[in-house]
TrEMBL record:
InterPro entries found in the cross-reference section: Teicoplanin_resist-assoc (IPR053150), VanZ-like (IPR006976)
Domain VanZ-like: 41-162
Protein name according to UniProt: VanZ-like protein
Organism: Lentilactobacillus kisonensis DSM 19906 = JCM 15041
Transmembrane feature ranges: 34-52, 87-105, 112-131, 146-164
Length: 177
């Protein structure tokens, strides 16, 4: 049963190794920039837990979609067929990713933000499929998750980008890397 937690522990370990490797560069940053990086790392761990940790339940009990099964993995490839509460929860879950993208990579272009959101969504769903097939992670693989993850990233990035054109610019500037 413990092997099902392996992806989450690998995620946390990779973050800690990354911090160790970058420790010299981190010492040159301001308190606010370190807070940005530290909170982004905590956020990535939370996303790892929410998406790659085993679960025997869904946040929404009544799925409106009869999934296609690939081995033991339930898969939905029909977009917008089911828009239950988890549809909107995925947008909210990825909003901070877009915010951190804007803070950590302030010169990133809109097209790359959309692409990053889509790649992250596809990556999460692909990992869930692989882990469902190998260690029975008990997760749904859903095209809606890819779409809503990308949407959340874009909305979060737009929030910071647009706020950067207001008097909040000076406040946001402290957090930029």
């Amino acid at each position: 049963m413990m092997i099902r937690w392996l992806p989450f522990f690998v995620n946390v370990t990779a973050l800690l190794i990354g911090f160790k490797i970058k420790s010299r560069q981190l010492s040159q940053l301001s308190f606010w920039q370190l807070l940005t990086i530290g909170s982004a790392a905590i956020y990535v761990m939370i996303i790892g837990y929410l998406t790659l940790a085993p679960t025997s339940y869904a946040f929404v009990n009544n799925q409106q979609v009869a999934p296609m099964m690939i081995g033991s993995a339930p898969v939905n490839l029909i977009p917008f067929w089911s828009t239950t509460a988890d549809f909107y929860q995925n947008v909210m879950m990825m909003l901070p990713f877009g915010v951190y993208l804007a803070l950590l990579l302030p010169t990133i272009r809109f097209r790359n933000v959309v692409l990053t959101g889509a790649i992250v969504g596809v990556g999460i769903e692909t990992l869930q499929l692989i882990l469902d097939l190998t260690i029975n992670l008990s997760r749904w693989v859903d095209i809606n998750d890819v779409l809503t993850n990308a949407c959340g990233v874009v909305i979060g990035w737009l929030m910071i980008t647009l706020a950067n054109r207001t008097p909040l610019k000076q406040f946001i500037k402290k957090w930029l890397i």
